[in-house]
Amino acid sequence: MKQYTGTKTIKAMPMAKSEAEQKLNRTIDCKESEGYFVEYKDGYKSWCPKSVFEETYKPSLEAIDLGLPSGRKWANMNLGATSPEDPGLYYNWGATEGHADGSDDDFYWSTYDDTPAAKIKTDLPLEHDAAHALLGGDWHMPTKEDFKELCDNCTSEWTTRNGMKGRLFTSKTNGNSIFFPAAGGYVGTSLYDRGTNGCYWSASRYDSSNAYYLDFYSGYVYPQSNSSRYLGFSVRAVQ
User: Do 40 and 140 fall into the same domain?
Assistant: First the structure.
């Protein structure tokens, strides 16, 4: 027999088996007690044990409305990630090709200086915007003003999600939230500060060698830091 991989989009929420039995008005024959209440596109509702669900399904990319004054919506996960806790890919500023953790690609100035991204003398145009290149549509990288608006209009809590440390930004207006993993960054071929530091590029240029980025640790958040453009940082898309 051939092996097949299916693709299915569903809606789901964590729910104990006992609660799901009441909601569905039927007995569920399963030894596991923790799982997810699932609703399919055709309206059919069911319950799935946690082990099976988390092996089968991954969260979809979503634009989260945080009730920001600008109306800006933020992606619920990093560029190249498969879940909100996944660090995703790492990018030079102005590069549209990301690099996975543990790849042989390097983040040196001598390498970056030979790329078109190093010659950019303005904020990032769309052809050099990693989020737009990967996701298309209205998706693009945030500006330094977007990062400031996010920090000004959300509370920020250092926390852990599924083993990954990072910051949870929660809207002061509507209570919606997004998690930023402390994914660290790359210099040369070395990953540094995974689990203690989050570094997220903006589309805003600082000068010929540096660009603005969101910088956070457990004790502080700097929405408009700047650093060398050749470094490998995370990217979070906005609409």
Answer: no
Among residues 77, 51, 62, the alpha carbon closest in space to that of 11 is found at 62
Positive or negative torsion for Cα 205, 193, 65, 69: negative
pTM for this one? 0.84
Residues 15 and 128 in one domain: no
Q: Which range of residues forms the domain containing residue 131?
A: 63-228
Q: What is the pLDDT of residues 22-72, one digit of tens each?
A: 999 999 999 999 999 999 889 999 999 999 988 888 778 999 999 999 999
Same-domain status, 67 and 154: yes
Whether the CB-CB separation of 225 and 101 falls below 8 Å is answered with: no
Within a domain: 187: yes
End-to-end CA distance of the chain: 44
Name the token pair of 188: 């040369």
